[in-house]
Amino acid sequence: MKNCSRIWWIAIAIFVLASSMPHSQAYLENEKIKTEVFLSPKFVLGPGSVENRFYYGIDFPSGHIALKTFDAEVVDEAGNSVPLHETYLHHWIVARYYIRKGADVLESNGNRTLQESDFIFVQNGGFCQSNILRQYFGLGSETRRTETHIPDPYALEVGNPTEIPPGYEESWMLNVHAIDTRGVEDKKGCTECRCNLYNVTEDEHGRPLRPDYKGGLSCCYDQAQCKLRHGFEGVRRNLYLKYTVQWVDWDTSVVPVKIFIFDVTDSWKRFNDSTGLRTEHHCLIEYDVESCSDTSLADNKCIHTKKTSFTLPTGGYVIYGVAHQHSGGIGSKLYREDGQVICSSVPTYGNGNEAGNEAGYIVGMSTCYPEPGSVKLTDGETLIVESNYNNSVYHTGVMGLFYILVADRVPNPTPFLHGPLEAYKNMNNSAFIIGAIVLLGVVAAAVGYRQRNKSEDGYEAIVM
C-alpha cells in the first residue's frame, strides 16, 4: 500500500503541473501565436541617394491584440536581403496613432501625410519633448541580429477599443531612413551623414546649418545625394522594408508592458512653477564624438563616454532592455545611482560580406531579459544611461538610445497543490486534457507493472 500511495502522489503531482500551466503558455502550445510578413511602400535608391520618408496607414495587424515580436530588414524586388555595404539602414521606426474616420491622407513629396487636426499620436512612456522618440518599435543597422521578442506572459497591448477616442480609429506609421552607398567616395562618411559629402549648408526646410554642425540627420535628409567616386555609374533599385509581426489575440492573462526610451543627449531639468513640480526634457537624438588625443591613442584608451540621468515618474518590473548605437559604438548600459547595472547592451560587428554579417558594421545588439520580478524600479527612482564609443577617429551623428519594457506587475503565481477543486479552477481546457492523459497513463503503467511483478510476498517496489 505504501508504494501504491507513492504512485498516486507522483501521478497527482504530474497532473497538477501539467494542468496549472499559465494560460499565456497555453496560447503558444495551442499555436495561437499569429505571424504575418508585410512590405513597406516601395522606395527607389540610386548610388549615393537617401530615403527618409514617413508612411502613414501602413499594413498592420488589426483588432485588440498583444504584440510579441517586430523584426525588419531591407529587401529588393525579388525578396533578397540587401547588405549594409550597399544600402545602409540608418534607422526604421514604427509609431501608433489615432486617425479621424474619413480623414483625407495627403501626398507630399512621396510621403503620405495627415492634417494635424485629424490625428492623435499615441505616446510611449518615454520622456522626450513633443513627438520625439515616441515610437513603439525601432532599430537600425543591427536589426537582423537583435532579439525583439517579448517573453510570456508579457506583451504590448494595442487596439483596445475603450482607449480609442470616439470617431477615430487606430493606425500605424513607418519611417525608413536608408542610404545607398554603392560607389560613394567615403562609405563611413556617408553613413555618418557628413555635411561636406552631401554638399549641403541648409537642412531640408531651407534653414541654415550651424557653423559647427559637421554631420547628422540635417545633412542626409530625403532625396539628398552623397558624393560618388569620379565616373561611377550604377542602376537605381526598387527596395522595401520587409517587416514581420507576431501577436496573439488579447486575453486577460497577458500582462501589458510600457515602453521607455532614454536618450543620452537629453538635457532635462526640473523646476517649479505655479502648478507645482515639473520636468522639461530636450532630446537632441544625435551627437558627435571627438577623436581622442595622440597620447590616448598610443595607450589604446580611446573611449568616449557620455551619460545622463533620469527620474522615473512611475516604476515597475523590467522585462526587456536593449541599446541603439552607430558604428564605433562599444556598448551602453542602464544603471541605478548606486552603480547597480540594470542592463548592459553591447554591439556585434560583422566580419563578412553577406547580409547580416557585414564587416565593419554593427549587425546586432545584445539584449537583457531579467528573471521576471527580479528587477524592480520604484516610483521617482533616478536611473543613469551611459553610451560608450571608440573615438580613435572622429564620428558625427551618432546615437545613444536605450529601450526598456516595464510591467506594472508580475504574473500571479499558480499554487502547486490546493486540492482537486482548486486545481481544476486553475486549468484551461487543453491543459486539463493533457493533465488527464498524463494521469491515466501513469496509473495504467503502474497497474500493469504491479500485475507483471506480483509475488508471494506482495508487490515489488517501483524505483523512480
UniProtKB/TrEMBL annotation:
Regions that span the bilayer: 430-449
Record Pfam families: SURNod19
Keywords for this protein: Membrane, Signal, Transmembrane, Transmembrane helix
First and last residue of the signal peptide: 1-26
Superkingdom of source: Eukaryota
Name assigned to this protein: Stress up-regulated Nod 19
UniProt source species: Acer negundo (Box elder)
Classification lineage: Eukaryota, Viridiplantae, Streptophyta, Embryophyta, Tracheophyta
